[in-house]
Amino acid sequence: MKDPVITGTGLWRPENTISNAELVASFNAYADLQNAQHAGEIAAGTRPAIVHSSVEFIEKASGIRQRYVIDKAGVLDPARMRPRLEPRRDDELSLMAEIAVAAGRRALAAAGRSASDVDAVLCAAANMQRAYPAMAVEIQQALGAGGYGFDMNVACSSATFALEQAANAVRCGTAKCVLIVNPEITSAHLEWRDRDCHFIFGDVCTAIVVEAAGTAIGSERWSIDGTQLATLFSNNIRNNAGFLNRCEDTDPDARDKTFMQEGRKVFKEVVPMAAAHIERHLARLGHEPTKVRRFWLHQANLGMNQLVVKKLVGRDVGDDLAPIILSEYANTASAGSIIAFHEHRADLRAGDLGVICSFGAGYSVGSVVVTKL
Ligand code: COA
């Protein structure tokens, strides 16, 4: 069995940001337009008025201050309220593949690898832009990688679940050098017209190189000491968009065809689940949570992350133990914990222990215990 190591990560983010103030101004303009258009029904009590959103609420409830988006104008247009993405021909590189290739190249450069060294590409994300061919196969070809590629979706836990697949492939020798990409175009599955969730998501792509310790050539290595995955069915985060929709004669623009959640229930149920999961995983490997130098957690809600770590180490902690990137990026689905790992690991020393952990729809929780070599 070969020992798997992470040798590089890469990040791609769009040029555009939307501040909370810009987002709320556009939402409120949309609400005013809708309320004026339906004034009669609202006065008759047959339709509720849309209530304004607020920057103060968003920052207090979530910790999010801004988000990156591929298309800003479409999202902020009160008459549209979703990104405007140009359709591409079949012989053009698709959008998800384009951002995955950009992040993937950066991760490979960090690992000192070229695409021809890669013999497996895993495209792991909360949404795929088409049914087939698999995004990973297009990305594999665009990069010039060999071997095989496949897509996998475990919503916000796609990246950590992919890390287990990559580590196992390296351990068993079915792949030597695995590239994981997490192209998360969350702006396309978010319902920007829903006040309860319009502030939640942002677009980004992360990438990770996993290979055998013995043949790695990069200067930075993180041993994957263990992975632990868990799932428990819940409808509290759900999106019913799917290939059966047109046969069911349902409205493709109906509310249930984009992201929906019971945010408060998710908060209450997932915090204890994630904390217990990490504690169990560390115990299996013979570690106390207080010995962990850094937790790179899923980035959905500031309070959630603070509570998970407090449950683990028994005290309030700051950014050094559990860095927060969601204030800048918002929730980026499976990419969140990987952005945190990408941006906040340079100060760690050889022997330092860390935990990458995602939690989200499914429910799904995935933890990856790593040590800097
Ligand atoms: N602006 C102003 N007020 C708002 C608002 C907005 N944009 N959205 C909701 N509110 C109001 C609600 O109407 C409610 O008012 P009420 O008390 O008068 O009924 C109040 O704020 C509280 O709403 P609630 O939805 O209970 O807020 P919350 O404190 O639970 O925060 C989330 C909402 C989504 C930020 C929070 O629940 C969360 O992050 N949960 C975890 C989500 C998660 O991890 N999801 C994983 C996704 S991958």
Write a concise synopsis of the structure shown:
This protein is α+β, with helices and mostly antiparallel strands and 373 residues long. It is built from eleven helices and 13 strands. It has a domain of 151 residues: Thiolase/Chalcone synthase (Peroxisomal Thiolase, Chain A, domain 1).
Topology readout:
Blueprint: E1 4-12, E2 16-19, H1 20-37, H2 39-44, H3 55-62, E3 66-69, H4 72-76, H5 95-111, E4 120-124, H6 135-143, E5 148-152, H7 158-172, E6 177-184, E7 204-212, E8 222-231, E9 237-238, E10 260-261, H8 263-284, E11 294-297, H9 302-313, H10 326-329, H11 336-343, E12 353-360, E13 364-372
Parallel strand pairs: 4-5, 4-6, 11-12
Antiparallel strand pairs: 1-7, 1-8, 2-3, 6-7, 8-13, 9-10, 12-13
This protein binds coenzyme A (COA).
